[in-house]
Design goal:
Mean pLDDT of chain B: 86
Radius of gyration of chain A: 22 Å
CATH architecture of chain B: Alpha-Beta Complex
Radius of gyration of chain B: 15 Å
Helix content of chain A: 25-40%
Oligomer: heterodimer
Strand order of the largest sheet of chain A: 4-10-9-8-7-5-6
Order of helices and strands of chain B: HHEEHHHH
Shape of chain B: globular
Mean pLDDT of chain A: 94
Chain lengths: ~400, ~140
């Protein structure tokens, strides 16, 4: 199918709205993506026609809801190249999934064990591991990055040893857009017997991974980054790992048998899915995956690469503009600053012109510390953005520069 | 000048601009004219929490009135600080504590006052009022 951005834009009702009197230019896709009508309709349909609790009831509505929820799990399984459906654990999102794994490893790690984390992580992929290391006396070590915003692979190799038990990193950096060489990292970590968790929150909207081929131990992501609703995400774990980890939360649905003396836990995936889940969200996640696959991930990547290189060259024409994160391998994210101007000021002015960008440290303070800056302005593009919108951003940044210099 | 007169003056001043750009340009000018806080006062403890840009606020008592000095690393924030200092500085603690802040809404800067906004200036006003409360308590001793 040919890529027709105008036709695609018709699928997103929010793109028709105005902000501060200007047509919305939404360039904060790395924070959350907008939702196509199909996803919105799916949620309305669920609550209008078959809202019921799942898995435990015999009545028709419950059966319909359970079927739809399990169909979504199957869609997720197929999309990410997962072998068994029970290896897909529904969570409330990436952060929940990371905490679930970190909690599980509390009973596995011991003093002397080492945990490696990359220097370009989101706080959600730093803090749970720090907490884990505090609980277990394991040591947290950092894989450094260089000026272009790429991991220093030689240093990574030097950090690996038989003490390394876990390696955590994002597939794509949220603040810089760098695509990390996860295949290489997974292979090398496995050689010393370490498990690897990949945070796919920033990559899942751009890159369709095959988790089986990658041989990764854990993969986590959120639906809302890929046109799905907020409040739902997944943890993928290899079956042998998920069986080894203890349950995270106790409650209904995760049990096999309960007496006051002893509770036995349900099998996978229910062991990790205590309580009533975000049913509508899970079903809509499946619909979002269908939507993106219908457009095609290859088509999306090619189009976004075009937007990225156009926006990069246009923005760099502005004197005094510096881009942070200049790896050749990056997704459509541009983090930048104007010389001597605070990112907050730039963000305030461009918002007045209807353009949504993110300003600040992007929950990745170690990166900002590395560059010795308070933050950046981040424009992140999606397949529904256009070259005209890039032009509007460039004009707005020029105007901000004029006003603020 | 009374706090109400200053507020009315500011409302008049800002009503000259119908366009947001002119209004912001004026705010930026005000920011540039803000006398800088002494570098030795730019300490961690003078930093106001909850702002995306850094804001340092210092207060002292001179002749029974509270004098504020402040600075920020962002110029629009500095402009807003300049407005707030014009209103709140050189006033009696009691006046500051009881001051109404609806003038901010009237000069069209309400968006900066939303408690959910990343650069919530609510925390700045709160801090100014807290200083006033502290000075008032000292006076009563």
């Amino acid at each position: 199918m040919s890529f027709d951005v105008q036709k695609i834009r018709e699928d997103f009702p929010i793109l028709k709205r105005k902000v501060n009197g200007h047509p919305l230019v939404y360039l904060d896709n790395a924070a959350t993506s907008q939702k196509p009508q199909a996803v919105i309709d799916c949620m309305v349909d669920y609550y209008s026609n078959y809202n019921a609790n799942i898995h435990r009831w015999v009545h028709t509505l419950s059966q319909e809801a359970t079927d739809a929820y399990e169909v979504a799990r199957k869609k997720i399984q197929n999309h990410f190249g997962i072998i068994h459906p029970e290896e897909v654990i529904f969570t409330s999102g990436t952060t929940h999934a990371i905490n679930l794994v970190a909690n599980g490893f509390s009973s596995i790690l011991k003093k002397g064990d080492e945990v490696l984390v990359s220097a370009m992580e989101h706080h959600s992929n730093i803090v749970p591991w720090q907490m884990l290391c505090e609980r277990t006396d394991a040591t947290l070590k950092v894989i450094p990055m260089n000026e272009t915003g790429e991991l220093v692979m030689e240093d990574f190799e030097k950090l690996l040893s038989e003490n390394t038990k876990l390696v955590f990193l994002n597939h794509v950096s949220n603040a810089l857009g760098t695509i990390n060489p996860i295949e290489e990292i997974i292979n090398k970590a496995h050689k010393v017997g370490a498990a690897v968790l990949i945070d796919g929150a920033q990559s899942c909207a751009h890159i369709k991974p095959n988790l089986k081929a990658l041989d990764v131990d854990f993969y986590v992501t959120s639906a809302h980054k890929m046109c799905g609703p907020t409040g739902v995400g997944i943890l993928y774990g290899k079956k042998e790992w998920l069986e080894k980890l203890p349950p995270y939360q106790g409650g209904g649905e995760m049990i096999k048998e309960v007496t006051f003396e002893k509770t036995t836990y349900a099998g996978l995936p229910h062991k990790f899915e205590a309580g009533t889940p975000n049913i509508a969200g899970g079903i809509a996640f499946g619909v979002a995956i269908d939507y993106l696959n219908e457009i095609g991930f290859q088509e999306i990547a090619t189009y976004e690469d075009g937007l990225l290189s156009y926006a990069t060259s246009e923005l760099l024409k502005i004197e005094g503009l510096k881009i942070y994160g200049t790896s050749k391998n990056k997704t459509s994210v541009i983090s930048f600053n104007l010389d001597g101007i605070h990112p907050y000021d730039v963000g305030t002015i461009v918002d007045k012109l209807g353009i949504a960008v993110r300003t600040g440290h992007h929950c990745a303070q170690p990166i900002m510390d590395y560059y010795k800056i308070p933050g950046t302005v981040r424009a992140s593009f999606s397949f529904y953005n256009t070259k005209e919108e890039v032009d509007k951003l460039v004009e707005a940044v020029k105007r901000a520069k004029m006003m603020l210099s | 000048m009374t706090i109400t007169t200053i507020q009315e003056e500011l409302i008049d001043e800002f009503s000259l601009f119908d366009d947001w750009m002119d209004k912001y340009e004026h705010l930026i000018e005000l920011g540039k004219s803000l006398p800088l806080i002494d570098a030795s006062l730019k300490t961690e403890e003078k930093l106001i929490k909850g702002c995306q840009s850094k804001v340092w606020l210092h207060a002292e008592m001179t002749d029974g009135k509270v004098v504020f000095t402040a600075d920020s690393d962002a110029i629009i924030t500095k402009g807003i600080i300049a407005v707030l200092i014009r209103v709140f500085s050189n006033q009696l603690p009691e006046t500051i504590i009881n001051a109404d802040t609806s003038f901010i809404d009237e000069i069209g800067l309400k968006e900066h006052l939303s408690p959910t906004r990343a650069n919530g200036l609510v925390s700045m006003i709160k801090q100014m009022k807290l200083y006033a409360v502290a000075f008032q308590a000292q006076q009563k001793k």
